[in-house]
């Protein structure tokens, strides 16, 4: 298996473990949004949204910038790609294992029928 620096992945998975933060990620996948825009559909206070955004930023999944009084957030697609790559590698590993098991079971089944 490939080796990864687990700290960034741990932070990313921690950040993605919360449904509110996942909702923010989904919204940001459509394009940049202000903190107010992100907060509007969520059942939490603006200060809670800011705290959740801090977790997403610390995980490298989101970045924000302030122009005047408006803080705009954008999705960091490179960080999301690293998470996707890690998941894809695990999926590939387990798919190979399942394929090997299937071949073994098919061989065992045909051997048992020939006896």
CATH topology: Arc Repressor Mutant, subunit A
Number of domains: 1
Portion in beta strands: 5-15%
Low-confidence stretches at least 5 residues in length (pLDDT < 50)? none
Q: Give the CATH class.
A: Mainly Alpha
Class by SSE composition: alpha+beta
Which second-level CATH architecture applies?
A: Orthogonal Bundle
CATH superfamily: Winged helix-like DNA-binding domain superfamily/Winged helix DNA-binding domain
Rg result:
21 Å
Counted beta strands: 3
The secondary-structure element order is HHEHHEEH
Shape: elongated
Determine the N-to-C terminus distance.
39 Å
Overview in brief:
The chain has 115 residues and is an alpha+beta fold.
């Amino acid at each position: 298996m490939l080796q990864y620096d687990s700290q960034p992945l741990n932070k990313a998975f921690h950040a993605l473990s919360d449904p509110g933060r996942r909702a923010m990620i989904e919204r940001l996948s459509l394009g940049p949004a202000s903190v107010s825009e992100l907060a509007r559909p969520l059942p939490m206070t603006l200060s809670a949204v800011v705290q959740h955004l801090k977790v997403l930023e610390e995980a490298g999944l989101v970045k924000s910038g302030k122009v005047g009084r408006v803080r705009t957030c954008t999705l960091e697609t490179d960080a999301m790609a690293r998470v996707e790559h890690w998941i894809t590698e695990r999926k590939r590993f387990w798919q190979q294992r399942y394929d090997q098991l299937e071949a073994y079971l098919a061989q065992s089944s045909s051997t048992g029928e020939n006896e």
